[in-house]
Amino acid sequence: MGLPRKRGSKSGLFLIELMIMILFFSIASAICIQLFVKANLISNDSRDLSMATDKAQIAAEYFKSTDGSETKLKKLLGAENLNENIIVVYYDKNWVACTPDNSAYSLHIKFTHPKPLISAHITVMRHEQSLYELDIKTHIPPTIADETR
Predict the structure, then answer these.
(1) Coil, strand or helix: which one is 40?
(2) For the chain, where are the E strands, in sequence order?
(3) What is the distance between the alpha carbons of residues 71 and 51, in angstroms, rounded to a whole number?
(4) What pLDDT does residue 82 have?
(5) ω into residue 116 within 30 of 0, thus cis?
(6) 59 Cβ partners below 8 Å, 6+ apart?
(7) Residues 125, 131: contact at Cβ < 8 Å?
(8) 3-state SS track over 77-90
(9) Which of 87, 149, 85 is nearest to 116 (CA)?
(10) Per-residue pLDDT in tens (0 to 9) along the chain, 149 residues
(11) Confidence (pLDDT) at 84
């Protein structure tokens, strides 16, 4: 009879199996973290687009209700002049009106005055990147046009 054979250690197989499981779970967790980060970015972009659309729509409604008067619109929106035909409203990261120093977003309204129409181009921006744009026109009677200008 020969010498008894020495059996291989089962603990070595267990350690290899454990390392494979740890590798699998670390890869799966890395993929999940990337998905959560991407979902958060998409959610933030969606929120920004929704708020930009809302702010542009409000500005358009004010534009229509004031018959395109720049001075009345500035007062309603709390805007300031950027130059002769452009007014701007600044918003912070929570979409609350603020000063230019604290702003994350801005709403620009550019006026054109081909009578009897007054038109405006509304642009909502995030750090010089356009989020939403809207063109609007309103017809005003000549008597109102003479009074507002």
Answers:
(1) helix
(2) 80-83, 86-91, 97-98, 105-112, 117-126, 129-139
(3) 24
(4) 81
(5) yes
(6) 73, 77, 89, 107, 109, 122
(7) yes
(8) HCCEEEECCEEEEE
(9) 149
(10) 556 565 656 778 889 999 999 999 999 999 999 999 999 999 999 999 999 999 999 999 999 988 888 889 899 998 998 888 899 999 999 999 999 999 999 999 999 877 778 899 999 999 889 999 999 988 877 665 455 54
(11) 84
Residue 38 neighbours by CB distance under 10 Å: 10
Q: How far apart are CA 2 and CA 15, in angstroms?
A: 31
86, 132 in Cβ contact below 8 A? no
Cα 30 to Cα 40: distance, rounded to the nearest angstrom: 16
